[in-house]
Amino acid sequence: MKTNIRKFPAVLLLAVLCLTVFPISAMAAGVAEVKIPVSVELSGEKPSPDETYTIILQGEDEAPMPEENTITITGAGKAEFPAVEYAVPGVYTYSVSQQPGKLENGHYDNTVYYVKVTVTNGESGDLEAVVAAHTDAQMNSEKQDIGFVNSYDPVDTPTPVPENTPTPLPEKTPTAVPTRTPAATITNTPVKPDSNLPASGTSSYTGTSSYTGNTGSSHVKAMPKTGDNTNIAKWIAVICVSGCVVLLAAVFVRRKKKTDK
């Protein structure tokens, strides 16, 4: 019995030493819940239908995480990550970023937000949490709301072509048709014999030729009139015949005289 009484002070001293070396964290009643809000804004020519954006939450140093660490927002709007529960006071850090979209004309906000959640014991004994978001990893910048601004370039929309519309054929260049020159017309005009010429047993015919028509770049020379030349030839022929007649008559007379002698 005396032995047990002597051991009790030793056990009590050991318990006091353990409390001094290994302090026990103070536990407040209940837990603190935090929902991190996120927004998406759009500018430029908005796509149709609306595009869906994915926001990702990542914890650091084994920080408590929600049931789902991704949320989606279709078009411009707001959303919250599921609640994160904190049972122990402390400082917890996260990062929030947007996954790039897939449209070629889209420019997606690639800002990374660094979130610090500070959990403390409140005056009432409950846990209290304060959330602050920054754009630098050191979290020295001003506090900001978590928001992503996505912009879009204009899209060239092709002009619709109505159905059953015939395709126009290319215009043909007209071919030059050569102009035909009408054939020349030659008209023979008979000329009556000159009544002043003596009848000599021969007949003559003179005429004139006239030409009408388009000759283009060529020139047709008119035939000279031969009426005057023909008359002169006739006079020469008449004189020659007359001379021959006179000569024959003279020869005939001489022979007759010789015969009479």
Distance from first to last alpha carbon: 236 Å
Gyration radius from CA atoms, angstroms: 67 Å
- How many separate helices? 2
Q: Tell me the strand order in the biggest sheet.
A: 4-3-7-9-10
| Main pleated-sheet profile | 5 strands, antiparallel
Q: Report the count of strand segments.
A: 13
CATH topology of the domain at 23-152: Immunoglobulin-like
User: Which CATH-level-2 architecture of the domain at 23-152?
Assistant: Sandwich
Helix-strand sequence: HEEEEEEEEEEEEEH
- Level-1 CATH class name of the domain at 23-152: Mainly Beta
Structural class: alpha+beta
Share of residues in strands: 25-35%
Which tags fit this structure?
single chain, 261 residues, alpha+beta, Immunoglobulin-like, five-stranded antiparallel sheet, 2 helices, 13 strands, disordered N terminus, signal, LPXTG cell wall anchor domain-containing protein, Strep_pil_link_sf, transmembrane, Strep_pil_isopept_link
Please outline what is shown here.
With 261 residues, the protein is α+β, with helices and mostly antiparallel strands. The chain contains two helices and 13 strands; from the N terminus they run H-E-E-E-E-E-E-E-E-E-E-E-E-E-H.
Q: What does the model show?
A:
The protein is α+β, with helices and mostly antiparallel strands. Among the domains are: 23-152, Immunoglobulin-like, CATH 2.60.40; 228-261. Helices cover 21% and strands 31% of the residues. The protein has helices at residues 2-21, 227-260; strands spanning 32-34, 37-44, 52-59, 70-74, 77-80, 84-86, 90-99, 106-107, 113-121, 127-134, 147-152, 185-191, 206-212. The strands form 4 sheets. It has a 5-stranded antiparallel sheet, with no helix packed on it. It has a 4-stranded mixed sheet with strand order 5-2-11-8, with no helix packed on it. A hairpin with a 5-residue loop joins strand 9 (113-121) and strand 10 (127-134). The longest helix is centred in the C-terminal third of the chain and has 34 residues, at 227-260. The termini are far apart. Pfam families: FctA. Residues 1-28 form the signal peptide. Keywords: Membrane, Signal, Transmembrane, Transmembrane helix.
